[in-house]
Automatic annotation (TrEMBL):
This is Uncharacterized protein. PANTHER family: ADF-H DOMAIN-CONTAINING PROTEIN, ULP_PROTEASE DOMAIN-CONTAINING PROTEIN. It comes from Octopus bimaculoides (California two-spotted octopus). It comes from the Eukaryota.
Length: 86
């Protein structure tokens, strides 16, 4: 069954480094243009919002990176659709 993803909502804890990295905010500003999907970003205070989803998110990122590295260079996972299809 295919899903129609209209918006991605990111949640992050209060790690100090995220506020010092302008790339995070630039990625959010250009998210719609780069990925054809709207996004919003919610920041939690340190240690708030922790739960099972943190482990799941980390596992998904690790598995996606590993799968992408096993693909030929011109077929690596670059979009949400490619991640979903992989």
């Amino acid at each position: 069954k295919a899903f129609n993803i209209n918006k991605i909502i990111y949640f992050s804890d209060g790690a100090a480094s995220q506020y010092n990295n302008c790339k995070n905010f630039m990625n959010l500003c250009y998210h719609s243009m780069d990925f054809q999907t709207d996004a919003e970003w919610h920041f939690f205070a340190i240690s708030h919002g922790k739960g099972p989803c943190n482990g799941l998110g980390g596992t998904i990122k690790q598995m996606a990176a590993q799968a992408s590295l096993q693909c030929p260079f011109n077929e690596q996972i670059m979009t949400l659709r490619q991640l979903y299809d992989s």
